[in-house]
Amino acid sequence: MILRALFMACKALAVDLSTIGGDQFEKGFPGQVADFTDAVIHSRINEGATAIPFGRAVAKGASDGCIIMSAQAYSVAGISVKNVIHPRSTGGVVAYNQYDSVGLLTHGAIYVLAAENARDGDAVIAIVAGGGTLGSSQGGVADESDRITVPGAYWRGAVTAGSIGKIVLRGSGATIRTTT
User: Fold this and answer.
1) How many other C-beta atoms lie within 10 A of the C-beta of residue 97?
2) Which phi-psi region, left, alpha or beta, contains residue 157 (left: φ > 0; alpha: ψ -120 to 50)?
3) Which of 91, 94, 164, 166 lies 20 to 30 Å (CA to CA) from residue 120?
4) Which residues contact 155 (CB under 8 A, 6 or more apart)?
């Protein structure tokens, strides 16, 4: 009863709980699954010597595992999911090291760090030179050398470069803006 009264008082005062104490809370963190309702996450072993940071596009490996995006990447296997109990990697960067089991989101919504500006509905582009960082069709069209389209993925809401944004992976039936 007391909680209900407190809730009603906050609602009447139009209190915004996202800024309690003057701090603006983060939307999410790179690799954090945004909604588990329809999330599909697969585990793959990092076959490469290069660590895979959270919230990056990851390529299929040669032995049913995965590798960080590189110029030799075959296709996108998914987006690396944040593991909250994962130990720190070399250099203080939290990432999946070689032979670690990597969680890959293949369907659902996930927070990522935008490498470039994106509009709501833009196609998600994996930037190979950025190690699988994620951009959009607004930043440039995909080609096979440096920018690879993440199949069925689009930006949910507009985001500026260097900010946390949400992407949704839906498969081939999604409506995605692919023009710049």
Assistant:
1) 16
2) left
3) 94
4) 114, 118, 119, 120, 121, 122, 124, 136, 165, 166, 167
* Coil/strand/helix, residue 17: helix
Q: Tell the burial category of 80 from Cβ atoms under 10 Å away from its Cβ (0-12, 13-18, 19+).
A: buried
Q: What is the largest CA-CA distance in the chain?
A: 61
Tokens at 159, concatenated? 């985001």
Dihedral sign computed on CA atoms, order 175, 163, 82, 129: positive
Given the structure tokens 């040669």, which residue do they identify?
62
Q: Which residues pair with 95 in a beta bridge?
A: 53
What does R_g of the chain's alpha carbons equal in angstroms? 18
- What's domain 28-169's architecture? Beta Barrel (2.40)
pLDDT digits (tens, 9 = 90+) for 62-79: 888 999 988 655 688 999
Q: How far apart are CA 152 and CA 126, in angstroms?
A: 12
Spans of all domains in the chain: 28-169
Encoded amino acid at 59, one letter: A
Amino acid (1-letter code) at residue 4: R
pLDDT > 90? residue 56? yes
Distance in angstroms (rounded) separating the CA atoms of residues 57 and 45: 15
Among 107, 100, 108, smallest CA distance to 43 is for 100
Nearest to 111 by CA among 37, 152, 168: 168
